[in-house]
Amino acid sequence: MSVSVRVHRERETVPEYWSDARTFAVVVAGEEGAGGGAVMLLDLGADDPDLRFVGVVAGPVDARVPLLEAAAQVVREAGGRTLRWVEDTGEMSLGTAAALVELGAVAGDEVHRWWRREVAEGMPGAPDARGAALPAADGASFRVGMGGAWCDVEVDGDRAVLVHDRQEEGTAGGLAALVSLAVRRVTAESAGIRAVETCVAPGDDVFEAALVSLGFAPTTRRAVEYHLACGP
């Protein structure tokens, strides 16, 4: 079944896909096609045309090839040589893998790796730690913070997903206290949580040390940046 795609260059036409001021176009699969989906194209403003444009891919694999082909054409017209986007290998289906081969996409650097801790028997931590309750990001159940670090906590079935960030490097002990606090709260408030997952960027040794101290272990699931040449 063929998939029709359409390029939108105005926020008003696709407000649900328009990300922020960096968005300059959105490629959307037509509803009459084999699946929905979209590619939000962001202009990072880099001088290097290989680093200037990134895509945020959403939707099923059915439309992946025509969407990314159309997105690459938009990038080419804007002066870019490469379209970059991120794929999560842990959620990549055989269909997605086949689509990437068909496109000629090339896997690049690892963006982050997922770590996991089973919590059926409880979680070690710092019982006296106290964190601030902060406004959470969209889709998150809550956010906790300590100093210049914070975690958004999302509940997905029987697992909790921690989205971590910090203003300064901090210490492994301080980050372990923050993660422990987030885990204790989500397991107390959400029934049936069996595991906690979070992702770590390459080279973040401090956060890795904090997770190891709490019993987390790295998984085979990774987020990888893919490149698609957009040259003439």
UniProtKB/TrEMBL annotation:
Top-level taxonomic group: Bacteria
Name of the protein described by the UniProt record: N-acetyltransferase domain-containing protein
Species of provenance: Streptomyces lunalinharesii
Organism lineage: Bacteria, Bacillati, Actinomycetota, Actinomycetes, Kitasatosporales
